[in-house]
Amino acid sequence: AQKVTQTQTSISVMEKTTVTMDCVYETQDSSYFLFWYKQTASGEIVFLIRQDSYKKENATVGHYSLNFQKPKSSIGLIITATQIEDSAVYFCELTSGGNYKPTFGKGTSLVVHP
Amino acid sequence: EAGVTQSPRYAVLQEGQAVSFWCDPISGHDTLYWYQQPRDQGPQLLVYFRDEAVIDNSQLPSDRFSAVRPKGTNSTLKIQSAKQGDTATYLCASTGTGVTEVFFGKGTRLTVV
What we know:
Distance between the termini of chain A: 41 Å
Helix content of chain B: under 10%
Number of strands of chain A: 12
Radius of gyration of chain B: 13 Å
Number of helices of chain A: 0
Shape of chain A: globular
Structural class of chain B: mainly beta
Order of helices and strands of chain A: EEEEEEEEEEEE
Structural class of chain A: mainly beta
Oligomer: heterodimer
Radius of gyration of chain A: 14 Å
Strand content of chain B: over 45%
């Protein structure tokens, strides 16, 4: 069975700093896909970045990057130069299995202070 | 292109009442998901379809919940005899062929009193 654990319930940072959010996953599949999504205060959920398990290079999109540590089953999200509008809830998601079944973590709330 | 459309946006029911949620995915997306998101929790998968076929409904409370996608496009999620524990936001999402990013609708916020 798949499982995704986000241990940080909430994080508070000052604007323009760097923040890392943790995510640990469990899967028995050798090939899988990891995603990070952001849910804003309005409830809208948007895709941020993905990492395919067979890729060794960490994904980077804009000021989002990933710290993929496959032996530890860990996929951290790093946000550099945080902005006020980065305040949101961030979800880690694992897709694996022949039917590409998705599993979400419980989320980490990020508050960025001016 | 238009995003994932859901209706209604809000619903308030008394326990025991029935409600249906409707979802129109992005055109051409073959996979459609229904999630339940209780307050302050992550989305929890209820059921998902590929075209008109149910791929996994193991988390769908089959005694009161049902979901269909008869033509492989729009989908309806129905709750018969709602309970207070069903209070949550119900999210529909869709994705194209293979493993690609998922696009979410704005959700339906359900309150059962």
